[in-house]
């Protein structure tokens, strides 16, 4: 499923051909990225007959902070940050936790990196923590759409994968898409031809083909509300540096805040968990109450 609207969408057939696809109420609404089965009608259009099991569903919050699924079956999410607009303190942690809960790989991309050197950073800025993220095992890449180092470092990451770009508006997601998909206009033109209407690339979630094997999902529009409200368990689980101490707290349901005998706090005191990560966890926990 390359594009999905309310009652119809565009699919890619095994031959690579793209075609319009009508939905049936009984089957439900597929998402961008869904693997579907269809029946072809005489006029050579497709009717949805099934949606295959989803490996995962990627959601973001809508204006009412409700969870809104925008795509399915992703391999990874690229969290794009930039020196300008500056990310808020816990933004990256929120994304990392949410992406972890989906079981997909997060990749941190510092775009506009040519501006980074000129900046003085606050100690609690996510940009000061890029080395720490690497140490935690997250891939961290620097890109620029306006100069060195360019965007080539992304190719090995994107190859053979289905990826989505996430991040606040203004960090350069559309600029990256334009760099990575040189035939973007051709691809949207083809989609428009298939539907017989124009495709609104500023509001529609679209799965594009990359010049290498692999796909990139563009979901323009509102990222400002961030992700959905997370459960506490999701939150603890998403801090992968806490994992070695799982089950070591005195209480099974320890929230790692002020409970006695908390193994996570001990680990922070012993320098085994980075203090700033723990502080971020505590702030997210507070916001979740
Ligand atoms: P989006 O809202 O995340 O899709 O961000 P855009 O791609 O629309 O980019 C926002 C602004 O940042 C635009 O004015 C871009 O020209 C600019 N921009 C994008 N990438 C870079 C970059 O690598 N360096 C600099 N200096 N500006 C960039
Ligand atoms: Zn604890």
Please explain how this structure is put together.
With 289 residues, the chain is an alpha/beta fold. The protein folds into three domains: 3-51, Beta Barrel (OB fold (Dihydrolipoamide Acetyltransferase, E2P)); 57-218, Rossmann fold (3-Layer(aba) Sandwich); 232-287, Probable gtpase engc, domain 3 (Ribonucleotide Reductase Protein R1, domain 1). Helix content is 24%, strand content 21%. It has eight helices and 13 strands. It has helices spanning 91-102, 130-136, 155-158, 173-180, 184-195, 232-238, 263-269, 275-287; strands at residues 3-4, 8-12, 18-22, 36-40, 46-51, 57-61, 67-72, 76-81, 105-110, 140-142, 162-166, 206-209, 215-218. The strands form three sheets. A six-stranded mixed beta sheet has the order 10-9-8-11-13-12, with helices on both faces. The protein has a five-stranded mixed beta sheet with strand order 1-2-3-5-4. Strands 6-7 form a two-stranded antiparallel ribbon. Strand 8 (76-81), helix 1 and strand 9 (105-110) form a beta-alpha-beta unit. Helix 1 crosses helix 6. The longest helix has 13 residues, at 275-287. The radius of gyration is 21 Å and the shape is globular. The structure holds guanosine-5'-diphosphate and zinc ion (ZN). Zinc ion binds next to helix 7.
Number of strands: 13
Highest CATH level, the class of the largest domain: Alpha Beta
Mean pLDDT: 91
Corresponding CATH architecture of the largest domain: 3-Layer(aba) Sandwich
Classify the secondary structure makeup into a structural class.
alpha/beta
Number of domains: 3
**Largest sheet, if any?**
6 strands, mixed
State the end-to-end CA separation: 37 Å
Strand line-up of the largest beta sheet: 10-9-8-11-13-12
Bound molecules: guanosine-5'-diphosphate, zinc ion
Q: What is the 3D form?
A: globular
The DSSP helix count reads 8
Strand content: 15-25%
* Oligomerization state: single chain
Helix-strand topology string: EEEEEEEEHEHEHEHHEEHHH
Which residue ranges are poorly predicted, with pLDDT under 50 across at least 5 consecutive positions? none
Residues in helix, %: 10-25%
CA-atom Rg in angstroms: 21 Å
């Amino acid at each position: 499923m390359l594009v999905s609207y309310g009652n119809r969408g565009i699919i890619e057939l095994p031959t690579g051909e793209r075609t319009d696809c009508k939905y049936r109420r009984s089957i439900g609404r597929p998402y961008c990225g869904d693997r579907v089965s269809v029946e072809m009608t005489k006029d050579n259009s497709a009717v949805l007959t099934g949606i295959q099991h989803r490996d995962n569903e990627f959601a973001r919050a809508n204006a009412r902070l409700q969870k809104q699924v925008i795509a399915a079956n992703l391999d990874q999410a690229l969290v794009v940050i930039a020196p300008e607009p500056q990310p808020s303190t816990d933004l990256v942690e929120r994304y990392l936790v949410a992406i972890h809960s989906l079981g997909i790989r997060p990749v941190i991309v510092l775009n506009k990196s040519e501006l980074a050197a000129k900046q003085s950073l606050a100690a609690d800025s996510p940009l000061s923590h890029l080395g720490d993220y690497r140490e935690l095992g997250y891939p961290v890449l620097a890109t620029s759409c306006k100069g060195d180092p360019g965007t080539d470092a992304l190719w090995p990451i994107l190859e053979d994968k289905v990826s989505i770009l996430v991040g606040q508006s203004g960090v350069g997601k559309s600029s990256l898409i334009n760099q990575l998909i040189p035939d973007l206009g051709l691809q949207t033109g083809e989609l428009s031809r298939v539907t017989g209407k124009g495709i609104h690339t500023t509001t529609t979630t679209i799965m594009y083909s990359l010049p290498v094997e692999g796909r990139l999902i563009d979901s323009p529009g509102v990222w400002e509300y961030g992700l959905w409200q997370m459960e506490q368990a999701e939150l603890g689980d998403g801090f992968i540096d806490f994992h070695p101490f799982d089950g070591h707290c005195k209480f099974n349901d320890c929230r790692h805040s002020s409970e006695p005998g908390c193994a996570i706090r001990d680990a922070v005191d012993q320098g085994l968990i980075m203090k700033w990560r723990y502080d971020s966890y505590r702030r997210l926990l507070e916001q979740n109450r």
